[in-house]
Amino acid sequence: MKKIRILTSAILLGSILSSTSVFAADTTVVPGHMAPGTVIKFNQDKQMEVVKQGKENRSSNVDKNAVPEDLPAIKANMTVTYDALGAPIVIVPKSELNNSKISVEMKEVKSSDLKDTDQSSISRGSQSGKISWFDIWGEDDTASGLKSSSGAAHKTIKLKTWVDVDDEDTGNSTSVQILDRGPYVSGRILDMSEESFNQVDNTDNGVFSGSISW
Fold first, then answer.
1. The pairing of beta strand 126-134 with beta strand 146-147
2. What gap in Å lies between CA 74 and CA 79, rounded to an integer?
3. Tens digit of pLDDT for each residue in 121-135?
4. CB of 35 within 8 A of CB of 53?
5. Non-local CB neighbours of 191 within 8 Å, separated by 6+ positions
6. How does pLDDT run across 107-161, given as a tens digit for each residue?
7. Is the C-alpha dihedral spanning 81, 83, 88, 93 positive or negative?
8. By three-state DSSP, how is residue 79 classified?
9. Which one, of 31, 62, 49, lies nearest residue 133 by Cα?
10. Closest by alpha carbon to 34, among 79, 90, 91, 85?
11. Please, how many CA atoms are within 13 Å of residue 214, restricted to the half-sphere of its CB?
């Protein structure tokens, strides 16, 4: 009986150490994958706390070969939410917003209210790749400080820029506005809100091949 208890304890300890090593693989950047819908926060000391636990297998069309790329460095008070395929969407730390000259007011807005008044300052371009969706309403905040059913996340396009989205699988198209930052997975170019994704494809698919232009 003692041998069995010792063996069981060893297995449990090995499991804990193994799971810990996964998170400790690179403690300088945000985790590249977590269960879809998960929300994590880093405190002032850059220690991670799981605020909301997501669920695996939320999508039936997960690209298991997708790998993280250009993951953002962990910063104090950073919040990260994970999209329908488990890829991170990074929210700008409030400390950075407070230290900048930009004044951000968090409020819910309608699509008709979101108009870019400085179209001439936006660099034009296009991209093709995989497009996923995320729960923009499940976030405490966004990089732009705004939420909308037509919101989307992109790594570099100027915030509040309107982007045309074409679904190569269905032939449908729609327009979204960049309100957040992400996704950080190779081949993934855009994360749309669940509502805007549903306008062009089935959210159960989780991802589609498409192109964006702005």
1. unpaired
2. 9
3. 445 799 999 999 999
4. yes
5. 83, 87, 89, 131, 132, 133, 134, 152, 153, 154, 180, 182, 183
6. 455 545 544 434 434 457 999 999 999 999 987 788 998 999 999 999 999 999 9
7. negative
8. strand
9. 62
10. 85
11. 23
Q: Identify whether the C-beta of residue 179 lies closer than 8 Å to the C-beta of residue 151.
A: yes
**Can you tell me which residue has the tokens 């669940």?**
194
State residue 77's pLDDT score: 87
d(CA 37, CA 155): 19
pTM of the predicted structure, to 2 decimals: 0.67
Query: Which phi and psi (to 5°) does residue 191 adopt?
Result: -120, 125
pLDDT value at 194 more than 90: yes
Strands (E), the chain: 39-42, 48-52, 79-82, 88-91, 107-108, 126-134, 146-147, 151-153, 162-167, 173-180, 188-193, 207-213
